[in-house]
Write a structure and sequence with these properties.
The protein has about 525 residues and is α+β, with helices and mostly antiparallel strands. The protein has two domains: about 70-285, Endonuclease Chain A (Endonuclease, Chain A), CATH 3.30.870.10; about 295-519, Endonuclease, Chain A. Strand 3, helix 7 and strand 4 (about 145-150) form a beta-alpha-beta unit. The longest helix is centred in the C-terminal third of the chain and has 18 residues, at about 450-470. It is globular. The N and C termini lie close together (about 10 Å).
């Protein structure tokens, strides 16, 4: 979608001059960046809740390190968020790339309204472009006196989205991709999930495999500072400044409407999520947190306001610095892998130093953005020749493994953003290994220094690679083979396995267009 808009804008860019001459730039691209801000405050003024104090005590026993619990399953991830909202006593801060008015979005919104009624202050910051929740829906949520909703870098409401791209491409092409979920400034979730059904495996034919972690301890304060940086930025515009509709609705009316939708559309999903057996094991102590020293890193909002070449890439540079000094191994999981020449050279240089380098990404059949795959295809042979190991997710793995009924076409797509360097450093966050994340968008993540956590991640990855991925192999003639080894006899494919003609043509087209820097 975004590439379609961007390419269309370039093709008809000449029309922009005529539109500017006719209407003037301000008429089409005005955004109320200076709209007044009203901060929501908790009903009770204490800064630390009872839950926070209990978490603080647990962390103190770990010598000030932060605690981490992985959330692999989408149902568990939704249940963790809903449970945290219900436990909140002071403040809830949510930063997301997108939110949808679907079942997951309704359940989260209803829980936030309940929390606000208890006196909890709620702040929701969402990037504007890909959210399908309308201004009116978000304004209704913000009708509660203790809920504030802001949209980051919104498009002008005076013209269609395509017009914004035509007349103000340099601004609207730069997006906030950060994701963070923080409660009472003491517990949080960080990872790749947005607020929509597919991220929690609700009513979708696609198994959207994602990953995030529950976090408690000192690093949450750093996450909170990163949230504040964006929340207080001029580009974070109150949703009420973008629409007048819904301002007069009473919070009780909003809650009733949401409750009806949640009860009819999401019957059983709530109980299944908050009552998950995994969460019960966490509550009972049978699943314990693993601890490590951690550091949260965010790109500054200023990255989005200067020409691409001038922007600081704080998060990416820290990750790539870790890769450049790796001594034994680098494992990267990224749904979109477009390394460009400099990124490919970074990984090739590591292999020349004797470092084992593995990259796990989606196959062409598995990816939800086939055009992005085109930016990866041209690098595969060189990476493999240098010794980099490439693994691509098998789209029909659920059916092959017998976890999905045959013939139903359940489709596996990976959305995980995770990296493990050597035997002790782990990165969890929003960053993809592609130019859009590295250069164009802002990103957020957490680095964890812990041998125990890194080893646990690597064990899990090693177990899953054989079951869920093809390993790519380079033939002497330069051709590629995709090898699936979770069989008595390996399956070998000589072309993009499972990908149809349209996907192949879309990916191939990208390789001929000068758009790699936009992927």
């Amino acid at each position: 979608m975004r590439l379609t808009i961007q390419l269309a804008c370039k093709v008809v860019a000449g029309m922009g001059f005529l539109l500017l001459a006719t209407f003037g730039p301000g008429a089409c691209t005005y955004v109320p960046f200076d709209a007044p801000r009203n901060e929501v405050e908790p009903e009770r003024p204490s800064l630390r809740s009872n839950v926070s104090h209990r978490i603080d005590r647990d962390v103190a026993r770990a010598g000030g390190r932060s605690g981490f619990i992985p959330l692999l399953d989408g149902n568990d991830a939704l249940g963790a968020r809903l449970s945290m909202i219900e436990a909140a006593e002071q403040r809830i801060d949510i930063q997301s790339f997108l939110i949808k008015p679907d079942k997951a979005g309704s359940l989260v919104s209803l829980a936030l309204l309940d929390a606000a009624e208890r006196g909890v202050a709620v702040r929701l910051l969402v990037d504007d472009v890909f959210s399908t929740a309308s201004d009116e829906q978000l304004a209704l949520l913000a009708s509660s006196p203790r809920i504030d909703v802001r949209l980051f870098n919104p498009l002008s409401r005076r013209s269609p989205a395509a017009m914004n791209y035509l007349l103000d491409f340099g601004r609207v092409n730069r997006r906030m991709h950060n994701k963070a979920f923080i409660v009472d400034r003491s517990m949080a979730i960080v990872g790749g999930r947005n607020i929509a059904d597919e991220y929690f495996r609700i009513d979708t034919e696609t198994e959207f495999s994602d990953f995030d972690v529950f976090v408690a301890g000192p690093v949450v304060s750093e996450m909170d500072e990163a949230f504040e940086l964006y929340w207080n930025d001029r580009w974070s515009v109150p949703v009420k400044a973008l629409t007048r509709r819904g301002d007069g609705a009473a919070p009780a009316e909003v809650k009733r409407a949401l409750k009806i939708h949640a009860e009819t559309a999401a019957a059983g999903i709530y109980q299944q999520a908050v009552g998950s057996s995994y969460l019960e094991r966490i509550r009972s102590g049978r699943v314990a947190a693993k601890f490590g020293h951690a550091h949260a890193v965010t790109d500054d909002p200023s990255k989005l306001k200067v020409p691409v070449r001038e922007g600081e890439r704080l998060l990416a540079e820290m990750l790539f610095g870790q890769i450049a000094t790796a001594r034994s191994q680098v494992t990267i999981l990224t749904p979109y892998f477009v390394p460009e020449d400099w990124g490919a050279n970074l990984l090739i240089d590591a292999t020349r130093r004797g470092v084992r380098v593995r990259v796990v990404t989606n196959s062409l059949a598995a990816t939800n953005h086939p055009y992005v795959h085109g930016g990866y295809m041209r690098h595969r042979a060189d990476l493999l020749a240098a010794g980099v190991e490439l693994y691509e997710v098998r789209a029909d793995a659920p059916e092959v493994l017998g976890v999905a009924p045959p013939g139903e076409g359940v489709h596996l797509t990976m959305h995980t953003k995770l990296a493990i360097i050597d035997d002790r450093t782990s990165f969890i966050g929003s960053l993809n290994f592609d130019p859009r994340s590295i250069k164009l968008n802002s990103e957020f993540g957490v680095f964890v220094d812990s041998r125990e956590i890194a080893s646990a991640f690597l064990r899990e990855i090693d177990e899953d690679l054989r079951k869920y991925t093809f390993k790519l192999r380079l033939e002497p003639n330069g051709g590629l083979l995709w090898v699936y080894q979770n069989r008595d006899l390996p399956e070998v494919f000589a072309q993009e396995p499972g990908a149809g003609l349209v996907r192949k043509a879309t990916a191939r087209l990208t390789t001929f267009l000068p758009v790699e820097g936009q992927l």
